[in-house]
């Protein structure tokens, strides 16, 4: 045990000596005896009338007491005071009580302990590049997004050439001449990455222009000194440079982590461009990697889907797959199942655009590809349509496995959009408790996906466990937005239509009035939903 000099002074004072000029045990010079002692033969002797009762402490002659107990084994006494080992020298050393010698460590002075926790590692600023033509620019309507993604996502940032400044991720497309109305794959691409990499700061840099070719607009030149570059490539590099300079000025160290590319439909419309697409795309990827000084930059290609529109579709798709097969850091995603607008088959609708962004992200994360949400029920044959006033119309259904509902839909008889904003909801069939509701706005409905004669609006993904549920939507008197009955339908795997339900009133309410119908003549088909199986 180490005893500091101050402790040693206390120990000596307790023995009744005020002079520390000891030369050997019991011999002092210039002796002055303290309280409770008196001088006898030049030795300080304890006054027996004032000394405390024997409590196991060392006697006042410097030698251990022989009280018949165990021999002194060098351990400290149990009264909490420093031991008197009979060697009160003046060299400042602690008493030799069998404890380790003073190792030079400072005494505990009550200061807080040193913080030995590892330093907090700053978040990595991961930067992803997005480029291409109109399907990268994006024509998805914002109502196809869940509500939380229609507004700025402050934990993901985008620098878009259409409005070159860093800001929270919002729909960013030239289709709407600014932020907020139409979106491309950036929304779910950024969201998926941020959810998968929560310790990192996700930043996206986007430049995309519709109707452009790799052969001309995106031509990168032979090397950095080539003055013959397409305007798309020079604008893309200028956008990247401006975005990175801003991050560096903020004290960040950006790390380029990947690039996604949705382009090729225009080249597939020209035979000569299609024939050269493989070599041009290979060179384009090499030039991007060189110009951003990231030789192993991962690169994901969206395979084009312009079936029936671009003559050389197959040639360009094959070229895209060949480029990926030749480079272990190049990948592809499928798009032909995403769904396109019925009145604009060149472009993916909002549900498909959501899935495209998710797939681009999952390819970079090396995760399974997400599926496209599917309708719970599909009209397959004849039906009757009419209206009878103000109701909530719908039906009950059974789910035999967990599903995730992504969109709520409404029947659109003419395929031209709905006339009246309509609330749609899902309830527990047994309790009538409302689970989720969303409004399909009339103003944007014509731009929403038309899938099997139903228009859809995105909702926050909602889990339905196996069980029975009710689905209902508002119907309005004198409105051309008809619901249908006596309908022939098919059901998705795991879904069963049970019975028609409605409720009276001009606002959305739990439908309790039963109209049985049959498997061959179901009702009331105003509402529908899109869903994914869990894990899909």
3D architecture notes:
The chain has 536 residues and is of the alpha+beta class. The chain has helices spanning 5-14, 134-137, 186-196, 231-249, 271-275, 277-291, 313-326, 350-365, 442-445; strands at 37-40, 43-46, 125-132, 140-141, 153-160, 163-169, 172-173, 178-179, 182-183, 201-208, 254-262, 299-302, 330-333, 340-341, 344-348, 374-375, 377-379, 384-386, 391-399, 403-411, 422-428, 434-440, 450-451, 454-464, 467-475, 483-485, 489-491, 495-504, 513-515, 527-533. Residues 1-31 and 49-102 have low confidence and may be disordered.
Q: Which helices and strands, and how do they pair?
A:
Blueprint: H1 5-14, E1 37-40, E2 43-46, E3 125-132, H2 134-137, E4 140-141, E5 153-160, E6 163-169, E7 172-173, E8 178-179, E9 182-183, H3 186-196, E10 201-208, H4 231-249, E11 254-262, H5 271-275, H6 277-291, E12 299-302, H7 313-326, E13 330-333, E14 340-341, E15 344-348, H8 350-365, E16 374-375, E17 377-379, E18 384-386, E19 391-399, E20 403-411, E21 422-428, E22 434-440, H9 442-445, E23 450-451, E24 454-464, E25 467-475, E26 483-485, E27 489-491, E28 495-504, E29 513-515, E30 527-533
Parallel strand pairs: 3-10, 3-11, 5-10, 11-12, 12-13
Antiparallel strand pairs: 1-2, 4-9, 5-6, 7-8, 14-15, 16-30, 17-27, 18-26, 19-25, 19-28, 20-24, 20-30, 21-22, 21-25, 23-24, 28-29
Helix pairs in contact: 3-8, 6-7
């Amino acid at each position: 045990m180490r005893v500091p000099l101050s402790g040693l002074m206390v120990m000596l004072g307790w023995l009744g000596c005020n002079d520390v000029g000891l030369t050997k045990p019991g011999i002092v010079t210039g002796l002055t005896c303290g309280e409770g002692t008196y001088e006898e033969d030049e030795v300080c002797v304890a006054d027996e009338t004032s000394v405390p009762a024997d409590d196991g402490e060392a006697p006042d002659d410097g030698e251990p007491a022989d009280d018949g107990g165990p021999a002194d084994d060098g351990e400290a006494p149990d009264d909490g005071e420093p031991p008197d080992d009979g060697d009160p020298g003046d060299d400042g050393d602690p008493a030799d009580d069998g404890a380790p010698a003073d190792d030079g460590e400072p005494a505990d002075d009550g200061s807080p302990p040193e913080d030995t926790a590892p330093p907090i590692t700053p978040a990595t600023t991961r930067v992803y590049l997005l480029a291409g033509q109109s399907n990268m620019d994006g024509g998805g309507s914002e109502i196809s997004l869940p509500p939380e993604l229609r507004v700025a996502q402050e934990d993901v940032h985008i620098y878009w050439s259409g409005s070159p400044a860093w800001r929270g991720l919002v729909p960013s497309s030239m289709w709407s001449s600014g932020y907020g109305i139409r979106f491309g794959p950036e929304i779910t691409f950024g969201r998926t990455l941020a959810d998968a990499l929560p310790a990192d700061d996700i930043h996206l840099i986007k430049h995309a222009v519709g109707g452009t070719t790799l052969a001309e607009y995106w031509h990168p030149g032979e090397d950095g000194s080539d003055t013959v570059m397409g305007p798309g490539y020079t604008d893309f590099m200028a956008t990247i440079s401006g975005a990175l300079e801003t991050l560096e000025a903020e004290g960040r160290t950006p790390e380029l982590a990947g690039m996604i590319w949705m382009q090729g439909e225009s080249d597939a419309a020209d035979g000569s461009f299609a024939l050269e697409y493989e070599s041009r795309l290979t060179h384009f990827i090499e030039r991007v990697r060189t110009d951003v000084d990231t030789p192993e930059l991962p690169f994901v290609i969206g395979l084009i889907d312009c079936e029936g529109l671009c003559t050389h579709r197959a040639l360009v798709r094959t070229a895209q797959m060949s480029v990926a097969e030749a480079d272990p850091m190049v990948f592809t995603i499928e798009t032909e199942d995403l769904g396109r607008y019925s009145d604009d088959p060149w472009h993916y609708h909002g549900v498909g655009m959501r899935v495209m962004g998710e797939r681009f992200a999952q390819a970079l994360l090396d995760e399974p590809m997400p599926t496209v949400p599917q309708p719970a029920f599909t009209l397959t044959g004849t039906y009757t349509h009419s209206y009878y006033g103000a109701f909530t119309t719908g039906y009950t259904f059974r789910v035999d496995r967990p599903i995730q509902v992504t969109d709520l839909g409404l029947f659109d008889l003419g395929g031209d959009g709905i006339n009246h904003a309509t609330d749609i909801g899902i309830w527990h069939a047994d309790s009538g408790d409302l689970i989720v509701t969303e409004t399909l706005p009339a103003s944007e409905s014509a731009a929403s996906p038309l899938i099997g004669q139903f228009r859809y609006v995105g909702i926050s993904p909602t889990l339905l466990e196996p069980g029975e549920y009710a689905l209902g939507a508002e119907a309005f008197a004198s409105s051309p937005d008809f619901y249908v009955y006596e309908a022939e339908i098919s059901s998705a795997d795991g879904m069963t239509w049970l019975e028609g339900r409605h409720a009276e009133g001009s606002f959305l309410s739990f439908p309790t009035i039963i109209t049985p119908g049959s498997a061959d003549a179901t009702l009331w088909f105003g509402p529908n939903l899109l869903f994914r199986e869990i894990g899909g």
